[in-house]
Amino acid sequence: MFRTGIFTIFALLVSFTSVNAQQFDEGIEYIEIKKPVKTSNKDKVVVTELFWYGCPHCFRFEPYVEKWHKTIPDSVVLEQVPSVLNPSWMEHARAYFALEMMGETEKVHMKLFSAIHLKNMRLNSVDTIAAFVKDFGVDEKKFREHYHSFPVDTLVRKSKQKERKYGHRGVPAVVINGKYRTSASQAGSNARMIEVIDYLVKKELAGK
């Protein structure tokens, strides 16, 4: 009887600890954006990943994002947005938006990251990026046209406006449904950052 009681208490403690391990605090693992930012899809929970191809932390975080993306339900959508916090990041942002408009991001997204961080390739201009993506079947002429297009100008401008509202100062950063922002430095690690994202996604889904 005594041993059974001890076992029951132990099981309850383990269960309690497990539940609490998934609890995160505003101001510690994430922050609440005081003025929520309008998302790209009001019917779903939108998770926005802000990144820069030249950022080593973003490169290390990307495999976590790819794995997580495969597990999300239809009620959640991931949008990847190249940051333009720094003027020197503009070339990569324009390249991403051009590829996105061409439907080619999936083909070369991780290849761009790997080329920069594993092969030390200097892909920092329209010429070097165009030559690189051409090797993977991307139409170079169309890429250049999109890169310099008005729609890409518009996307860059909108990104600047949203980033000011998000209030982040570095990348990678993730915004959940325009209401919450987290980062690896806040969460403690890339793996824990994914846990925080899941926690906030569930919080938003529960409110719908």
Walk me through what this model shows.
This protein is α+β, with helices and mostly antiparallel strands and 208 residues long. The protein has one domain: 3-Layer(aba) Sandwich (Glutaredoxin). The protein is 56% helix and 11% strand. The protein has nine helices and five strands. It has a five-stranded mixed sheet. Strand 4 and strand 5 form a beta hairpin. Helix 3 crosses helix 6 and helix 5 runs antiparallel to helix 6. The N terminus is likely disordered.
Low-confidence stretches: 1-21
Specify the structural class: alpha+beta
Q: Strands of the biggest beta sheet: in what spatial order? A: 1-5-4-2-3
The helix content is 55-70%
Overall domain count: 1
Number of helices: 9
Quick gist of this model?
By secondary structure, this protein is an alpha+beta fold. It is 56% helix and 11% strand.
From the structure above, extract its key features.
56% helix; Glutaredoxin; globular; 5-stranded mixed sheet; alpha+beta
Topology record:
Elements: H1 2-21, E1 31-32, E2 45-51, H2 56-69, E3 76-82, H3 90-102, H4 105-117, H5 126-134, H6 140-147, H7 150-166, E4 173-176, E5 180-182, H8 184-187, H9 190-207
Parallel strand pairs: 2-3
Antiparallel strand pairs: 1-5, 2-4, 4-5
Helix pairs in contact: 3-6, 3-7, 5-6
